[in-house]
Amino acid sequence: MIIQEDLLSAFGADIIRLKKSQFLFEEDSDPTYYFQIKTGKIKLINFQHEKREFIHSIHGEGDSVGEMFLFTKYGYPVDAVLMEDCSIYRLERSKLLKLLQSDFEIQKTFLNYLAEKSYYSYIFLNSITSEDATHLLTTLLNHLKESNSDKEPHSYKIPYTRKEIAFLTGLRIETVIRTFKKMENDNLIRIVKGKVYY
User: Fold this and answer.
1) pTM recorded for the entire structure
2) CA pair distance 69, 115, nearest whole angstrom
3) So what's the pLDDT on residue 148?
């Protein structure tokens, strides 16, 4: 959780409830609110040729969504689409700024969160330039497992479908399936009843 829920409420955040497949915000719209997920899951996407999705990131409970765009003069470069029904804290930009000014520790936590997201973006963008699907998928799996306290091999169940992983990496679904089979043979992952463990 980036900002404590009681603190969001104290600074005037309300809770909005949206349904699966609705947009939280759309590409080119103006960022005017800070959003933090109370329950549910949201993906940040662009539509490519033939309406194929490219998923930039997936956010779950406690994550903020699109917060870095509040600090630019540009519109959102992505769409935020609900992957399931969500309850979301919504706080006006001006009130977020007051909240951040109220406590230096909150500012540090917020900046650390932004820095980690930026760091991962650079690492992931670098791996996308690789022709090696195994390297690309391993980069993604390492990032996903970072939040897991158990670092043992095959201890972390990947929370995404192969289709979602394909959209996150820009790979074809068939390539993800084939590469996962190879990674399983190399003992990098374990597949149990269709679920991938890393």
Assistant:
1) 0.77
2) 14
3) 73
